[in-house]
Amino acid sequence: MQIIILSIAASVAALLGGVVAFKGRSKLNLALGFTAGIILGLVAFDLLPEIFAIVNTQSLNPVWPMIALVTGFLLFHTVEKLILLHNEHEDEYTPHQHPHVGVAGAVALCGHSFLDGVSIGVAFQVSSAAGLLVAIAVIGHRFADGFNTTNIMLYHKNKPKDAFKMLVIASVMPVLGAASTLFFDLPEAVLAIYLGFFAGFLLYIGASDILPQAHSKGSSWKTIALTIFGVIFIFVVTRFAA
Q: How many domains does the chain have?
C-alpha cells in the first residue's frame, strides 16, 4: 500500500508540473528555456550519477550504458528526421516542428514515467528506507517531467487538449509501474542500460529541439537565466533527495 500511495504522490507532482506549463504557454519561449535547463540538470545530476552508482555496485562495464546513451540520442534524431521528411509538404509547420514529433517525445517521457514507478517498487524490494528515499527523488523530479511533457507537446503544435491527454497518461504511469513490481524483479544491470538510453534521448531533445526554440525569437537574458535556473533547480532537488 505504501508503494501505491507514494506513486500516486508522484503522479500528482507530474500533474502540477503540467498545469504550470499550461498557465505559462503564453510565454512559451521562456518556459522552453526553463525546460532545457531542467533536462540538462536531469541528465547531469540524476541519470548519470545513478548509472555510475549502478556500474560501481554491480561491477558493470560502463561502456554499455554509454552505448545506450548514444543509441537513444541517434534513435530519436532518426525518428524525428524521418517524421519531418515524411511530412515536409505540410507548410504550416517549421522544419523542426511537427505534432508527431511532439507525440514521440511525450511517449518516451511516458515510458520513463512508468519506469519511475518501477524504480519505487524495486527500491522497496531492497528495503523500506531505500524505497522511501527513491520515492522522494522520483516525486521531486516528477514535477519537471509533467512540465516537460506538456511543453514538448505544445512546442510541436499539438492541440492543448492532446497535450493534456498526454499529461494525464504520463501522470498515471508511475502508479502502473509501481504496481507492476509486485509481479517481477528488475535487474540493476538492465536499469543502467535503460537510464543511459533515456539520457541520450533527453540530451537530444534538449539540445536540438527545446533550447534552439527557446531562442528562436532572439536570445534574451530572461531565457538564459531561466535555463540556468532550471539546472540549479534540479541540482537542489536531487541533492535534497539524495
A: 1
